[in-house]
Structure formats: C-alpha cells, structure tokens
Amino acid sequence: MSIKFRPLRDRVLVKRLDQEEKSPGGIIIPDTAKEKPMQGEILAVGSGVRDDKGVMHPLDVQVGDRVLFAKWGGTEVKIDGTEYIILKESDVLGILEGKGSVSAA
Fold it and tell me: Consecutive sets of 10 residues in the chain, 105 residues long: mean pLDDT of each?
C-alpha cells in the first residue's frame, strides 16, 4: 500500500486495527457500543527529533510496528477516503509483540 503522506519530525501515521466483534465471554458487540480501538499499525514515520545541540535522533517506532496508543491522543484524518491517526511518538504507549490484542479496562 502506498500512501502519499510523510509525517514531520516526531509524528507517525497510524491505521487503527479492527476491534473484536465478540467479548471474551462470547457476546456479540454491536457497532454502536464499540469503542474505537487503541491499537494500530504504523504506516509512516517522521524524520525524528532534534535535541538542543541540533543532533537528529530517529524515532523508536518503525513502519509495520503494531502499537498501543493513548485513547484520546492524536489527530484523526482521512486520506483518500481512509481514516488514519497522526500521533506524536510520545502518544505511543508501547509496541505490541506477538498476535495478542489489548483492551482498555
């Protein structure tokens, strides 16, 4: 997939990952009761952040990383009809490893 968008500095472009349709107990969750997922995949990253001495430091996240991010963080945008979120790297809470999923408590 080719996106014509490049985040600046310490920002990343994230696509939300779909949330499960069923609860852990097997109850089907209707669309109106679903919360927006707090996890997504990094599609593009900025160049990094400069320190006080002008040295550029690359971001810790990379394209393809599955991440958990702050519930109310970032700016939602539509690019070519698809919804994405632009986040600062500081809004990313961590990188998800493996196939599991995380839900808010």
Answer: 80 82 60 66 91 90 91 86 90 83 56
How many structural domains does the chain have?
1
Q: Is residue 66 a part of any domain in this protein?
A: yes
Rounded CA separation 97/105 (Å) = 20
Q: Model pTM?
A: 0.74
The edge-to-edge listing of strands for the beta sheet with 92-96 is 75-79, 82-88, 11-16, 39-45, 66-69, 92-96
Which pLDDT score, from 0 to 100, does residue 62 have?
A: 92
100: how many CB neighbours lie within 10 A of its CB? 7
14-31: string of b/e by CB count within 10 Å (b at 16+)?
bbbeeeeeeeeeeeeeee
- Direct distance between the N- and C-terminal alpha carbons of the chain, in angstroms, rounded to an integer: 33
Identify the domain containing residue 59 by its residue range.
11-18+30-96
